[in-house]
Amino acid sequence: MKVRQAANVIELLEFFAERLRPATAAEIADGLGWPRSSTFNLVGTLAELGYLYEPRGRGGLYPTSRWLSIAQAVSEAELLPEAILRMVAQVAAETGETTLVGTAAGLHAIVMHVVESEAPIRYFAAEGKRLPIHSCATGWALLSQLPAAQRKALYKRIGFEAYTPQSPLDPVAVEAQIAQGAARGYFLSDGEFSPHLVGVSVPLAVDGRQLAISVAGPQFRCLDRAEAFAGMVRDAIAATEFQNGR
User: Fold this and answer.
1) CA–CA separation, 67 vs 81, rounded Å?
2) Which domain holds residue 97?
3) DSSP H or E segment with residue 29
4) For residue 192, is it within any domain?
5) 3-state SS record for 39-83
6) Could you give the number of structural domains in the chain?
7) What's the rounded Cα separation, in Å, for the pair 63 and 46?
8) What pTM did the predictor assign?
9) Among 58, 108, 211, 216, which is most exposed with the fewest C-beta within 10 angstroms?
């Protein structure tokens, strides 16, 4: 369930990130399609709390640096270890494909760090990108690290949307993917979320955090190399101090 007030704050930030200049409350309302009364209430509250200000008198509002300072403080408390960042760069160089670190956030897998392929045709990802946790290799690698009871509770909240004809549409199908991946030693998606996209993911537990290291790219280039990609990821993990959950 999406809380409208919280979503509005995020949409407001995204509005300014795209606009990159001040806006009046009326311009914000028109740009986002919001009622003017609720828009005035929201921007007034954020301005009172120090998150919006007027760079020039009556020239519109703009976010203050308070957002940045809070985001930096939060991110610095849970930074990925430098060894993982080096490992991702190494795997990306070896595979030639986009390589990322994912973690679970509710019903989604979130991209925490990514090194994109330099190939013209490649998987595009950005930090903060959300993937359906039940319908991609990264998600299955993360789900595999949860107790069965916790997965069962999570499935009750999933809508099981058919992103492609290959998408798993019920808990049984997801559990089958998890069982196959666990037996195989890595998790493989082949068009379950995005057509013609292949993903290879290996679970990684570090300091009590459940992560997944994933390589993704176009089917025509990656499907036959999936097992090799998984081996590269496993070798890179084994070569760091973050093996066996340490």
Assistant:
1) 24
2) 78-238
3) helix 25-32
4) yes
5) HHHHHHHHHHCCCEECCCCCCCEEECCHHHHHHHHHHHHCCCCHH
6) 2
7) 9
8) 0.74
9) 58
